[in-house]
Structures are given as structure tokens and as C-alpha cells.
Amino acid sequence: HQDWYRYEVAILVGGGIGVTPFASILKDIVHKSKIADLRFPCKKVYFLWVTRTQKQFEWMTDIIREVENVDSNQFMDTHIFVTQFKEKFDLRTTMLYICERHFQKVAGKSLFTGLSAVTHFGRPNFQDFLKSVRSEHPNVRTFGVFSCGPPNMTNNLDGACTNLNKQEGATFNHHFENF
Length: 179
Description:
Mean pLDDT: 88
Number of helices: 5
Largest sheet: 6 strands, parallel
Helix content: 25-40%
Distance between the termini: 15 Å
Strand order of the largest sheet: 4-3-2-1-5-6
Low-confidence stretches: none
């Protein structure tokens, strides 16, 4: 995961306790931002945190808040996926989702985390996410994708990268660790 900064666009995905290696990367971004030293090829970082509940890792919420506080150039784009909720078709989850989206629009931050990061309910659709990143950055030829987490998550992400690499356009180089 140490080569993330070598890609013009890096996608970091941490699942469960697998978010730990990314804490040091985020802290490094905070440190370099404070000394105005973001001189490396990477121009954008997407950070996806997949967690059962953000309460399990309150310390990570604090680190993301630090990044948000110093990220005046919108270098980071953070998405939190809370998986403890049922599918979006469940009434309770639908109501939570509606409240979250409304609060995000009104307050500019998440009702659940207090962060500017977008909070999603359920597991990420990696293929759709990677497609949107590719369309957001049409001039990027190779994206660095770095993940750490349970095998099911990294396998799903690897499959999405493989499927998209079969198509015309930019490629996704996936580097991962399982626990």
C-alpha cells in the first residue's frame, strides 16, 4: 500500500480492521497538508471505509475528520459504507437513508458520523464506483486500487477491477491484503 501516491488517482478501500493501514496514509496526508508538501504524482484520493458500524472504529472517524479539516483542495473524497443495515428496500433503512441524505444536504455533513464524507448503507458496488471514478477522470490511464480487509471484500473489488480492465479505457491496478 506504500505506492499509492505514485498513481495520479488512488482508490483506498479498508474493510473492518483492514482500515488500520490506511490510518497511517491518512495521517501522512494530514501532515503533508499542514506543511504544504503535497508534491507527489497523486492528484486525487478516494477513500472507501467499509464497516459494520462507525462506532466500532471511532478513532478512524477522528482521523477522517482531521483530513477533512486540512483538505482545502478537495484532494480526498471519502465514502463510508455502514453494512449493519439491511438492503435499501427495508423500510427502516430507507427512512434512515432519506434522513441521512436530507441532513447531508442541509448541514453539509453526515447525521451519523458528523463528517462531510458521504455515508452509504449496505455494501459498496465496486464496479459502479470504479466506473464513476473512471468517468470523473477521463484522462487518467491507470488507477491505483489498494485494499485491505476480509477476503470477500477484496475478492469483490478484484473482480470489479478485472471486469473493467476487459473494457476499453483506463485500467485498475489492484493491490490487496487480506486478514
